[in-house]
Amino acid sequence: MNKPLCTLIISVYKNTRFLSCVLASLRYQTEQQFEIIISEDGDSKEMREFLSEQTFGQPWQHLTQPDEGWRKNRALNRAILAASTDHLIFIDGDCVLHPRFIEMHVRFFEPNRILAGKRVMLSQRLSDRIINCPDKIKSLQPAIYSALVWHRGTERPEEGIFLSPDGLLGFIPKKRKLTFLTGCNMSFSRKAIEHINGFDEDYILPAYGEDADLLWRFRMAGYNLFSLRNMAVQYHLWHKKGWTDQSENKAIGEAKKQRGEYICKNGLKKLP
CB-based contacts of 173: which residues, under 8 Å, 6+ apart? Predict the structure, then answer.
């Protein structure tokens, strides 16, 4: 295999059923020249046993750390340090990829760009269909079109419609800009994330510190978003919503903004 063009970093925590679907979607990727890092915020026996039974078509590694509460940002920093490429793509272990997902991230990559995509939230019925038969990933686009027409179950189905930048409707993604970053569908260069010293490990609760914090810090460092909406498509498997209270995270973020601390101190490097 040729040298990988990019590193796909998959954040996981125990859920092997969902990860099985994500890995199945990698088999259908039109761009296969990538490496895989499975970044586990924990060290579960179930995950180790599951991965030992998998067959990968790409170089891969599984990184673990002691399970001591939410420390996803620490796990992501460790994955960045372990990556062998300069293009880092981040997804979560509950997000199934459209076949051209990696192709689109690779195609539009530039060292000074922060590539940003979205996800479509699948209904429980569609999610169960994929979990029970991962090969049904191939039929997701028709299901999304149906949800768009009939307004059944799936949340924001328009985000799950793939539009080729080379097709007749290729002008639509160019018009659908993004003003925010979603941690499960983003990519950037090693240079960019090193510029801001990685993910801020001061955040010990999910959500804000995984993406919103990155966005303002990237912008302070001179980087801008480039939208991959409707091009780098991913499908989020249904599950009950977890953490929603962002007050503590936002308070930490606001204090750092006031200090202009866009290069975090508790990141890839531990700064004084």
Answer: 163, 165, 227, 228, 229, 230, 231
